[in-house]
Amino acid sequence: FQFNLMVVGQSGLGKTTLINTLFASQLASSSGRTEAGEPITKTPDIKCVSHVVEENGVRLKLNIIDTPGYGDQVNNEKCWDPITKYIKDQHSQYLRKELTAQREKHLPDTRVHCVLFFIQPTGHGLKPIDIVVLKKLTEIANVVPVIAKSDSLTLAERQAFKETVQMEFAHHRLKLYPLDSADYDEDEQYQNAQIKQFIPFAVVGSDKNVVVKGKTVRGRKTRWGVVNVEDETHCEFPYLRNFLICSHLQDLIETTAHVHYEAFRSKQLLA
Amino acid sequence: FQFNLMVVGQSGLGKTTLINTLFASQLASSSGRTEAGEPITKTPDIKCVSHVVEENGVRLKLNIIDTPGYGDQVNNEKCWDPITKYIKDQHSQYLRKELTAQREKHLPDTRVHCVLFFIQPTGHGLKPIDIVVLKKLTEIANVVPVIAKSDSLTLAERQAFKETVQMEFAHHRLKLYPLDSADYDEDEQYQNAQIKQFIPFAVVGSDKNVVVKGKTVRGRKTRWGVVNVEDETHCEFPYLRNFLICSHLQDLIETTAHVHYEAFRSKQLLA
Ligand SMILES: Nc1nc2c(ncn2[C@@H]2O[C@H](COP(=O)(O)OP(=O)(O)O)[C@@H](O)[C@H]2O)c(=O)[nH]1
Ligand SMILES: Nc1nc2c(ncn2[C@@H]2O[C@H](COP(=O)(O)OP(=O)(O)O)[C@@H](O)[C@H]2O)c(=O)[nH]1
Fold first, then answer.
1. How far is the CA of A155 from the centre of ligand 1 (A)?
2. Between chain A's N and C termini, which has fewer beta carbons within 10 Å?
3. How many DSSP H helices and E strands does chain A contain?
4. In chain B, which residue ranges form alpha helices assigned H by DSSP?
5. B chain contacts of residue A121, beta-carbon cutoff 8 Å
């Protein structure tokens, strides 16, 4: 199994921490940090880091693709170009191998199976840059948006914010994952409809342990309480993890091949 | 007493809420909200809203100057121009009245006495746009930076973030308020040195009441605890309020006249 997961979002939204929380280990040290006096003047390159993790007894080769510097400049025009280019390049490389490879050979798959898109929990709605980038990314890959650092929202604010953002998704007709598709059977369609109510998942990440009721869990300890990322009444991290690593892992990989790659391939072969 | 307070920061950092918390009343409804499908395509105009508040038995005419749209675009080049223009225009208008008014008349003072600059609690450091804008604003007005929504930081993260940001302030030699100045006596210099250790104040704002130990306070109620904005072990809001409204109100008004306006005036009269 090879799963290629790209993370997109402004620096400081907890992307690195969330990846570590998802895969329960120190996979990455935080990129995007600069020394004082070293302003981020150009977008650093896209980085791909490989790991082997074991989830549910299954060994998974995990590639985390980080997109440092996204949205961090004064002028963010075209800051999405390196990102869309990377996604298309993987399709392009796969197509080239497909056209030249022997029939039975298993081709290494570097295509981006899922883009985790981090939304800042402003309490108002999507930012203009989010809308531009989501439009571009949803055309070429499976995009799963999450509300970053959702512990900074009260339950009421979270609900209101999520509804606003869901309305904006609908208004811009963004094709977020999972897509409505006849390829899914009735059970799957029902399950997807249920999941869609949650999206964007309101997540909290932590690479620190806290003790809650005698149990050690990932959490954040503040002066007024302890956020337990494993607690579904605190945040939706458990739903995201189950969605990404259990229930929809296979489908994310398959739809990338059968939907996004196919669309790319047809375009290329017609051109 | 007329106090002109400008707030600068990306939308969604709790500026409106903090103003309401500072002045314990519903002064403003949140600006910067757009309907779904109405992307913020141009920077809305600077808005000035007047209020009369009573603080410590003193009636204060308070002008809150909002700078909607700052830093919210895809391309934020020059998004600070309307802000610096507004500040300079007030100096310019005051100079014009000063040159034409009769000696004894009290001139209405619309000069910006304090700019509250909101820093996003990313956990990393200042954003490139923050550094550019802080450099420009500190040249022409009293700037007091705050760490917005500081309840999204653990105590350890808050301390580390504050130290990073303080180092960046020093590295860029930003002239933040209060300035080191021979005009202050020894007691005031000592007090300022103490205050400077806190800046940027890590604030939390709330326009909702919560009950803590039988007392009604402004706070945020989450599933894992209640943030009490009045509690100095939760955040530094009480220090900011005391600083802005009690201990340094007079000095903010005076230094604007004697330092920033004087600098502006000399430049104009020499030119
Ligand atoms: N409040 C809150 N803080 C978080 C969360 N996840 C990470 N952080 C903190 O936010 C800061 C930046 O996190 P990081 O993972 O480096 O963000 P990145 O720049 O997007 O990769 C660190 O201080 C983290 O401890 C979260 O879910 N909630
Ligand atoms: N976590 C947290 N949320 C806050 C704080 N202050 C305001 N908010 C919430 O953040 C959202 C945006 O606040 P608002 O004052 O409108 O921000 P503005 O756009 O900067 O004026 C609202 O949902 C507020 O309730 C705070 O100190 N901490």
1. 20
2. C
3. 8, 9
4. 15-22, 81-100, 128-140, 155-171, 186-198, 237-241, 249-255, 262-270
5. 12
Phi, psi of A174 (to 5 degrees): -75, 135
Read off φ and ψ for residue B33, nearest 5 degrees: -90, 135
Q: CB distance A154–B220 less than 8 Å?
A: yes
Positive or negative, the CA dihedral B22, B25, B28, B30 is positive
**How far, CA to CA in Å, does A118 sit from each of A149, B5, B192?**
9, 33, 40
Ligand 2 close to Cβ of residue B17 (< 6 A):
yes
Q: What is the pLDDT of residues A140-168, one digit of tens each?
A: 999 999 999 999 999 999 999 999 999 99
Structure tokens that stand for A163 in this block: 């509804």
Per-residue pLDDT tens over the stretch A95-113: 998 888 776 677 889 999 9
Torsion of CA B149, B153, B159, B164, to 10 degrees: -70
Q: How far is the CA of B214 from the centre of ligand 1 (A)?
A: 34
Structure tokens at A105: 């050979």
Distance, CA of A173 to chain centre = 19
- SS3 label, residue B190: helix
Residue A3, SS3? strand
